[in-house]
Amino acid sequence: MSHLLTGVPASPGIAIAKAYRLEMEESIPQRKEIEDKAAEMRRLKEAIESAKVDIDRIREQTLERLGPKKAEIFEAHLFLLDDPELTDAALARIEREGVCAEFALYDVAAAIMDALRSMDNEMLRERAADVEDITRRVINKLEGRAHHTFSELSDEAILFAKDLTPSDTAQLNMDYIRGFVTEMGSRTSHSAIMARSLELAAVVGAGTDASHIRTGDTVILDATSGKIIVNPSRNQMEDYSERKRKYEDDVLRMKSYVDRPSVTADEVHVELAGNIGGIDDLEKVLANGADGIGLFRTEFLYMGRSTFPSEEEQYSVYKHVLQKMNGKRVVIRTLDIGGDKELSYMQLPQEMNPFLGLRAIRLCLDREDLFRTQLRALLRASAHGKLAIMFPMISILSELREAKRILNEERIRLEQEGVMIASELEVGIMIETPAAALAADLLAEEVDFFSIGTNDLIQYTMAADRMNESVSYLYQPHHPVILRMVQLVIQAADHRGKWVGMCGEMAGDASAIPLLLGLGLHEFSMSASSVLPARELLSRLSKQEWSRLAVEALSMSSQQEVLDFVNNQLRSEA
Ligand code: PEP
Ligand code: MG
């Protein structure tokens, strides 16, 4: 029998494939006394040997598919399984204490993991995760369970997980994963944003019902509407295969807008830029004909590794992006760590409210060494294209001044060293806090541009955690309160001759674009896959007409009223 689940559509697309469940929580083996110690020791040895065969197979597949660097991890796993500190010690526990193999291995491994985690050395701390992985693999063998990792996929699959961190998402095996579903999360959680930049169908916040879906179940994922159909009927399969084809045709049709200008029906030019998280996203931005990059989330450079990226490493990434964009503007945002974005190798104090804590510019001003390294890399890269530096999460003027002071110090230092820096380097801020929106007139005096970060601006204005699906109903980009804030920011900047963009998810939302155009937004920055649909939509809109309609929307009393108004209007124009 087929059944239907729903969640939040996070990244559009339709996928039909088998489910693959990523098990996050696994039980801790309990101590059990056994009779036959020799047989138990044999059991453990056999499980280890069998795990080694599996790992070696994965190593070979990885080597072939992803190259030697990615395969190294599995060489390390094989090496660990031969380590007497782990395996001999576990066998000795069975012999000495007569305990079951699962418990003996887990207990020895847990002591090793604790010791590794308390080390000063980053590399050694990282090894704890490897010890855990191989221990789980052997325990799964002992218990007759399959051990799954992304690297074992050899067929198309839709991934199911309780939640995915941004670094999990970054490691998805794009050869086989056709989409993902998480039980937690919202449209603006970072895994959702990553999915959009990977152009991967994704539904998030599907709730605990999704936890019943097993590896091997056939699934239709309609991420355009947030539907998940498990074990579909033949009719449903036919229907969705057709819809999938149609969706893919539409995506192709949009491609005719790649080389066209971003201009409205009444000849007003705007900029449609792309959001990226790293070099890998560049191809999609270029292929979708974006007018520039409106947000480079540099924190992704710092993730999925064990040490901070050096100035040199950052410089070469920023330079590469600027060169590839060939004179188009690239807005690079300085490090925005904190909230749901953590670095495993950076020990930060536990916070009660990470989204209200030491994140983004607050962290950078606290850890000036990190900030200065990044600024130096950016300043050096500025000579290679049209760079704009953007500071995230500014709340008050003094934070902006402090960030600019440090930037200026690094600029002077580099100039004294004879390093070339672009003479026309723009410096701007994100408007993500209500405080910044309300002080936009003051802030506008001291920046070249604003970019409105609605993902955070909405969460802080509504006091609703963007990661918490129970309050996701308050994520209301079309609510007149949010539109009024956007208007306030644009007017404040306009008076001072500064440009305003938006790089939150709202900027790529087809039912928000007409209003934003009407309110006078100059630059819209979105995931690459939204650029062409946005360009096609803009070509049908009149800026003059929407300036009038947007003002009407400002005095409405709910998001629904605004949405109905916009959709009716768009329908009548079609
Ligand atoms: C935002 O807050 O709107 C934004 C673009 O930043 P991030 O989603 O990375 O917090
Ligand atoms: Mg933000």
TrEMBL record:
Pfam families found in the cross-reference section: PEP-utilisers_N, PEP-utilizers, PEP-utilizers_C
Cofactor annotation: Mg(2+)
UniProt keyword annotation of Manganese present: no
A cellular component term, taken from the record's GO annotations: cytoplasm
Residue ranges occupied by any PEP-utilising enzyme mobile domain in the UniProt entry: 155-226
Compartment annotation: Cytoplasm
Active-site residues (renumbered): H190 (tele-phosphohistidine intermediate), C503 (proton donor)
Coiled coil: 31-61
EC class (word): transferase
NCBIfam families, A to Z: PTS_I_fam (TIGR01417)
Task performed by this protein: General (non sugar-specific) component of the phosphoenolpyruvate-dependent sugar phosphotransferase system (sugar PTS). This major carbohydrate active-transport system catalyzes the phosphorylation of incoming sugar substrates concomitantly with their translocation across the cell membrane. Enzyme I transfers the phosphoryl group from phosphoenolpyruvate (PEP) to the phosphoryl carrier protein (HPr).
Name of this protein: Phosphoenolpyruvate-protein phosphotransferase
Protein's gene: ptsP
